[in-house]
C-alpha cells in the first residue's frame, strides 16, 4: 500500500499576470489530482509572492481561487495543499478529499521582504488524516530546527513544505539553494519523517529568482525524486504505508535519544541568553579570525608518538587553534602536547577512554576544560552529561568554541543550544561517512550562523566509513577540507568569527531575534525524549 503524492513545480509569475497564470496552474492541479492521493502546490501560488503596493492588482478574488481548489479536491477525492497570499497572510491551506479545509497556516519565519507585506503566523500546524498526522510549513519555516522538530514531536509523519526557494547564479539549469542542497534532507533525517517540498522556478518581478528543485525526501534523508531548476514539472512518488494505512517512518532506534534536560536555553528569553550579550561585545575583526587546522584519521590504529609528530608538523603552520581527530585509545599525558604550544595557541585533544569519547582543551598551561558526549542511540550505553553540558562554551582570545561528539550532531537541539550559549564555532567529533557528515555540518552551520568544524576519526566509526574533516562557514560553505580516506591528513583556513556574530541571513530575517522561545516548551518536555 502507498500514498501517491505529487508536487507541482510551476513557473513564477508577476502579480499582474496572476489570472492567466492561475488558469494554467488550475489545469495542472486538476490533472495531478486525478492521479494522486495528495497534491502540493507552492507558496503564494496565487496571486504572487512579490507584492508591494505599487505592483498591479489582480482581478480574481483569492476566495474564488480557493473555492475552485476545494472543488477540485472534492471532485477528485484528493488532498490538496495550496499556497496563497491575501492581505497580510502568506498562507498554506489544506483541503481533504471532500474539499473541506482541515488545516491552514501562515508563514512563521518571514524571509527577507516578507515582513513588508505579511504578518508572521503560528509555528506549527498539524492535522490527522487516514495516512497519519501531516504538518504544514511554508518555505523558510523549514530553516528553523525548532519548528520542524516540534511538528515531529506532535506525531507528524510527513512535512508538507510549500515554498518559494530563492536562488542566485548565472545559469538557470544549475540554480540551487541551501535548503535544496542539504537542509531539507537533514530535516527529514533528524526527525525520521518524510518531507515533500513544492517550489517555483524562473524569475518574478525581475528581482526574485527561484531555485525550482521540488523534491521528496525519505525519513533517512535520502532524496527520492527532484525536479530540475528550470522547468515546469509534476514530480510523483509512492510513499509506503503500513497495515494501518499510515505513512511508514523511520525506526526510532536509528535516531539518538533526545535529552530535554540539556535544552533549557531553547526556552529562555532572548535577552537572557549568553549570545544576546556576546553579540553586543565590541570585537576587532583582525583579532577574531583564528587560523584553524583540522585533521582527519582514516585508520584504526595510531601510535601516540605518530600522533604527537603530527601535532609538531601542524605547529609549523602557525595555527591559533588545532583540532585533532579522536585518538583510538586514551591519551593519559597531555604534557608533551602543551609543551609544543605557545601562549596564543589552543588545541582540542579528543581521545576514547573507557567512559567514551572525551575532548579536552589544552593550552601551554595545561587542560582548561573537558567535554563528554551528551547523546546516545537507543541500543548504546546512556551518556552521563551534566545539565549544563550544552550551555558551556570555551572562551579563547579570539572567540567562543563549543564541542559535540558523535550522535550530538544528529540532534539539532545540541548545536542550537551551543550557539545560544555563545559559540562562534562548534567542533563536531565523529566517525560518519563524508556525504552524510557534509549535509549535517552544513545545516548546523547555516541554521545557526556559526562555523562548524567537522572532525572525522575512524576510531569513532562502527561501519568502516571513509571520511574527511572540513571547516564550514556560517553561510554553509566549506572553506577547507582534507582528502576523503587519506590515513592522516590536515588542512586549515582562517575563520572570521566576526561573521559568526552577524546573525542576519538576509534583510528582515535574523537567526536569533526571529526565534519564538515561548513556543518551544514542547521541546523541553522529558516525556518527549523520543520521536
Automatic annotation (TrEMBL):
This is CN hydrolase domain-containing protein. It holds the Pfam family CN_hydrolase. Keywords: Hydrolase. GO terms for molecular function: hydrolase activity, acting on carbon-nitrogen (but not peptide) bonds, in linear amides. The keyword Hydrolase applies. Gene3D superfamilies: Carbon-nitrogen hydrolase. Residues 3-241 form the CN hydrolase domain. The keyword Nucleotide-binding does not apply.
Amino acid at each position: 500500500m502507498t500514498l501517491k503524492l505529487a508536487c507541482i513545480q510551476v513557473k513564477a509569475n508577476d502579480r499582474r499576470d496572476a489570472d492567466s497564470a492561475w488558469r494554467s496552474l488550475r489545469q495542472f492541479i486538476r490533472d495531478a489530482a486525478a492521479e494522486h492521493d495528495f497534491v502540493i502546490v507552492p507558496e503564494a501560488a496565487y496571486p504572487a509572492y512579490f507584492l508591494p503596493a505599487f505592483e498591479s492588482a489582480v482581478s480574481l478574488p483569492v476566495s474564488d481561487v480557493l473555492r475552485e481548489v476545494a472543488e477540485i479536491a472534492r471532485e477528485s477525492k484528493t488532498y490538496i495543499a495550496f499556497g496563497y497570499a491575501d492581505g497580510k497572510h502568506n498562507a498554506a491551506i489544506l483541503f481533504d478529499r471532500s474539499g473541506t479545509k482541515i488545516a491552514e497556516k501562515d508563514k512563521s519565519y518571514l524571509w527577507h521582504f516578507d515582513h513588508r507585506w505579511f504578518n508572521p503566523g503560528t509555528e506549527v500546524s498539524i492535522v490527522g488524516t487516514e495516512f497519519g498526522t501531516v504538518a504544514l510549513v511554508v518555505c523558510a519555516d523549514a530553516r528553523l530546527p525548532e519548528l520542524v522538530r516540534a511538528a515531529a514531536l506532535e506525531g507528524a509523519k510527513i512535512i508538507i513544505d510549500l515554498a518559494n526557494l530563492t536562488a542566485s547564479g548565472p545559469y538557470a539549469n544549475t540554480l540551487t539553494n541551501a535548503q535544496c542542497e542539504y537542509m531539507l534532507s537533514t530535516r527529514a533525517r533528524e526527525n525520521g519523517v518524510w518531507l515533500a517540498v513544492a517550489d517555483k522556478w524562473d524569475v518574478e518581478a525581475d528581482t526574485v529568482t527561484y531555485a525550482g528543485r521540488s523534491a521528496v525526501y525519505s525519513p533517512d534523508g535520502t532524496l527520492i525524486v527532484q525536479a530540475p531548476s528550470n522547468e515546469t514539472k509534476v514530480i510523483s512518488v509512492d510513499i509506503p504505508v503500513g497495515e494501518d494505512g499510515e505513512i511508514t517512518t523511520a525506526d526510532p532506534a536509528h535516531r539518538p535519544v533526545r535529552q530535554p534536560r540539556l535544552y533549557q536555553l531553547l526556552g529562555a528569553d532572548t535577552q537572557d541568553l549568553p549570545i544576546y550579550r556576546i553579540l553586543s561585545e565590541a570585537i576587532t575583526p583582525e583579532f577574531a579570525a583564528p587560523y584553524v587546522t583540522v585533521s582527519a584519521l582514516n585508520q584504526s590504529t595510531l601510535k601516540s608518538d605518530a600522533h604527537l609528530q603530527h601535532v609538531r608538523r601542524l605547529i609549523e603552520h602557525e595555527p591559533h587553534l588545532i583540532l585533532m581527530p579522536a585518538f583510538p585509545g586514551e591519551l593519559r599525558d597531555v604534557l608533551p602536547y602543551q609543551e609544543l604550544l605557545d601562549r596564543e595557541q589552543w588545541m582540542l585533544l579528543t581521545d576514547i577512554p573507557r567512559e567514551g569519547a572525551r575532548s579536552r582543551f589544552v593550552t601551554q598551561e595545561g587542560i582548561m576544560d573537558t567535554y563528554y558526549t551528551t547523546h546516545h542511540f537507543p541500543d548504546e550505553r546512556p551518556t552521563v552529561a551534566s545539565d549544563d553540558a550544552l550551555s558551556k562554551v570555551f572562551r579563547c582570545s579570539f572567540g567562543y568554541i563549543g564541542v559535540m561528539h558523535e550522535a550530538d550532531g544528529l540532534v539539532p537541539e545540541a548545536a542550537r543550544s551551543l550557539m545560544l550559549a555563545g559559540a562562534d564555532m562548534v567542533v563536531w567529533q565523529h566517525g560518519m561517512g563524508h556525504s552524510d557528515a557534509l549535509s549535517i555540518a552544513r545545516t548546523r552551520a547555516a541554521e545557526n550562523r556559526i562555523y562548524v568544524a567537522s572532525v572525522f576519526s575512524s576510531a569513532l566509526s562502527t561501519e568502516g566509513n571513509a571520511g574527511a574533516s572540513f571547516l564550514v562557514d556560517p553561510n554553509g560553505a566549506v572553506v577547507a577540507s582534507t582528502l576523503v580516506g587519506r590515513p592522516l591528513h590536515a588542512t586549515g583556513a582562517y575563520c572570521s568569527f566576526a561573521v559568526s556574530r552577524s546573525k542576519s541571513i538576509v534583510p528582515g530575517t535574523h537567526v536569533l531575534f526571529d526565534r519564538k522561545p515561548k513556543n518551544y516548551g514542547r521541546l523541553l518536555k522529558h516525556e518527549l525524549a523520543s520521536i
